[in-house]
Each structure stands twice: as C-alpha cells, then as structure tokens.
Amino acid sequence: MNQLSDRINSLSTSATLAMAAKARELREEGKDIIGLSLGEPDFDTPDFIKESAKQAIDDNYNSYTPVDGYAELKDAIITKFKRDNQLDYNRQQIVVSTGAKQSLFNIASVMLNDADEVILPCPYWVSYSDIVKLNGGVPIEVKTSIDNDFKMTPAQLEAAITPKTKMIWYSSPCNPSGSVYSKKELRALADVLQKYPNIYVVSDEIYEHINFVGGHCSMAQFEDMFERTITVNGVSKAFAMTGWRIGYIGAPTTIARACNKIQGQVTSGANCIAQRAVISALEASPDRVQYMIDEFKERRQLILGLLREIDGFSCNEPEGAFYVFPDISAYFGKTLKGQTIDNASEFAMYLLENANVATVTGDAFGNPNCIRISYAASQEQIIEAVKRIKNALS
Ligand code: PMP
Ligand code: GLU
Questions:
Q1: What pLDDT is attached to residue 173?
Q2: What distance in angstroms lies between residue 110's CA and the mean position of ligand 1's atoms?
Q3: d(CA 38, ligand 2 centre) in Å
Q4: Can you give the three-state secondary structure of the chain, one letter per residue?
Q5: For a pocket test of ligand 1, which of 125, 202, 210, 216 has the largest count of ligand atoms closer than 8 A to its C-beta?
Q6: Per CATH, is 6-44+289-393 categorized as 3.90.1150.10?
Q7: pLDDT tens for residues 56-81?
Q8: Which CATH fold would you assign to the domain 47-286?
Q9: Ligand 2, atom nearest to 374 Cα
Q10: Which mutation among 16, 130, 236 tests ligand 1's pocket best, with the greatest number of atoms within 8 A of CB?
Q11: What is the pTM (predicted TM-score) of this model?
C-alpha cells in the first residue's frame, strides 16, 4: 500500500525532536535521563509576558487574527528591528508565523523552484536541509571546521556558488556551534555576493540576544543587502517561549506578501493569545531577559571547563546560543564496553545508553565528527551529566 507520498517518505525526522522524544520515553520507563538534546530554555516565560496573555483572554481575543499578524504586533516588531538591529521595515514587510520554523518553511516554499540550490554553511540548524528539500530545493553543504570556529569563509562561499544558487541560509549566533559572525566577517561574505545580485540571504537571528560577546550584526544592516535579505527571528529562545510558537520575518515586500499568501492557505495565522503576549515581550527592553543570558554565560564556562577535562573532546568557544559542539571523532574506531564506536550517531547513542545523557549527533547538523550538547539545563544537571559522560568513556 502506498499510503504515504514519496515526499514524506524522503523526509528525515527532526533529530533534535526525535532525541527529546526518546529521552522522554526512557524517563517514563523509570530511567534517570538528563536531557541535553533539546534547544529549549529551562526558564519559565517571564511574568510580564504571561500577564499579557491572561489579559488577552479576558479581553476576548478569540477571533482569527490578520493572516500575517496583528497590526500592533507588527508595530512592536518594527520597533524591535529599529531598536536592536537598526533596520527599517514597514508593516507590509513583516509576517508573523507559528514559530520561526514556519517562517523558514514559508520562505522556502515561496522562493524555491525545483533544483534551486541553497548554500548551507555546516554545521547548520537541523531543519534547514529538510525544509529546503521538501520544497524542491537542493541543499549545498559548505564544510567548515573547528579551526575556523565553524564559520564559512568568503572563498568557500564563492566556490559553492553556481548558476543555480538561489539563497544562503545561516544562523548567527549559530545553532549548533554557538559561533557569531562579526560585522567584518558578514561584510566579507556580502562583498562576494555583490558579484551575484540574484542570490538572497536568509539570516536566522533567533539567538540574537543570547550572545556573550556583543556586536550582533544583521546582514540586512548593509544597505546593499537589505533588499535581498530575509531576517528571521522569534521569541522561543530569548524569552523562553518555545511552546507559544511565534516567529516572524522582515523581508522584501514581494516575499512577505507571498508568505502571507501561503499562510492564508495553510494556517490562517498564528495563535491570537500568543501574539498579544509577544507584543509585551518585544516592546520590553532586552534588559528584562538579561538574567537568563547571564545564567547561560555561566553555564557555558562551566560546561566548557568540564568537557575540556575529558580526553578526546575538542571544543570551540561558543560566543552565543546555548550549545557546545565538541568534535569527538577521536573516539571513532575505539571499543567501549564491548561496543565499537564508528560515528557520531553511535557515540550519542552510547552516551544515552551508558551515561543516561541525551545529546544529538552532529550528522543531523551536517557535521559527522561532532555531537551537540545543549546547556539549557541547570548547573547541577550539567555537572552530573558531564560526570556521567566521563565515567562512561573511561
Ligand atoms: N532557527 C534556529 C537556529 C533554531 O535553533 C530554532 C529552534 N527552535 C528555530 C529556528 C525555530 O524556532 P521556533 O520555531 O521555536 O521559533
Ligand atoms: N531549535 C531547537 C533545537 O535545535 C528545538 C528543536 C527543534 O525545533 O528542532 O533543539
């Protein structure tokens, strides 16, 4: 029976969500699993945001919203883009969606024709490649290495460009490497693109505020890139609002209109109560969530210090987001507890089964030598998890 389409059969399951589900399952069986697989802040949504949601319910916000978002929310997004990124968007250029994941899906579906190529500097966020494929595009992976802090160089970008190149997608701060592209580095990539005026950039800035070095730069800040950059952002990470499912874009008007059109046929728009709450989140000064960023920074130091004590773990120093992405290829070919480890997936599975710690294989992010560890967990959990990892490997 061919119940399912070829398209869905060729789609991979989200490795981050699959590992989180597996960890949940094992916990239900009574195992004491420490989950460091999911990129999800372990904080509560701040009270001032929750209050706005409660108020919205009492104020009877219960109807369909405009497909691309409430005008007041778009205005809050416009103010945020101006305040934090010095970007000038108007209401026709903003589209609110059900999470940045849907924003990305919309972009792929309205911009890609079959066989269009999308350059993905590796490691990239797990869903980029499948979202591109699902929409007929061809992901072109550009390998980077820990020696260059997992960043794509201008020469690598230029070498990956072909007549079929439609877009480049990247995140900065990067999930999974934590790398942050400086203004100078982005300018150098933009300089390459000057020779190729038909190539667009998707700049995923969802970790913008979780940046330990400052100097966040948006590609659209460069005047010559504004008209061909789609800036993606959302509230999941900085505001601890993953389950509220609100993301948004600032984009050239034609692209924003097309995203609105597809959304009108697929979801009718994002949830009304969540949208009202996000107005408060974005109108507030980013200082109000600084306590979470400070805590992530402490945890980063903690986990880096602990991991560096384990033989065979080689880490870059992540400048943002809440992940470490150690290269663990030193273990490939080794036998641990009678089990030979041949790749990062087997390594992550070994840690799950022998250390009761859930991580994610680097394959899912386009780098088969690494695993991703999320440190969006308490310091006690981090200490215990690394202790278990160390024991399981010794
Ligand atoms: N982009 C990146 C780089 C991410 O890590 C995530 C994680 N959720 C998303 C987009 C999607 O975020 P959401 O759909 O929760 O807004
Ligand atoms: N973005 C998070 C992660 O990378 C959440 C999971 C997901 O949306 O895939 O783990």
A1: 98
A2: 19
A3: 6
A4: CCCCCHHHHCCCCCHHHHHHHHHHHHHHCCCCCEECCCCCCCCCCCHHHHHHHHHHHHCCCCCCCCCCCCHHHHHHHHHHHHHHHCCCCCHHHEEEECCHHHHHHHHHHHHCCCCCEEEEECCCCHHHHHHHHHCCCEEEEECCCHHHCCCCCHHHHHHHCCCCEEEEEEECCCCCCCCCCCHHHHHHHHHHHCCCCCCEEEEECCCCCCECCCCCCCHHHCCCCHHHEEEEEECCCCCCCHHHCCEEEECCHHHHHHHHHHHHHHCCCCCHHHHHHHHHHHHCCHHHHHHHHHHHHHHHHHHHHHHCCCCCCECCCCCECCEECCECHHHCCCEECCEECCCHHHHHHHHHHHHCEECEEHHHHCCCCEEEEECCCCHHHHHHHHHHHHHHHC
A5: 125
A6: yes
A7: 999 999 999 999 999 999 999 999 99
A8: Aspartate Aminotransferase; domain 2 (3.40.640)
A9: 10
A10: 236
A11: 0.96
Q: What is the structure's pLDDT at 295? A: 97
Domain coordinates of the chain in residue numbers? 6-44+289-393, 47-286
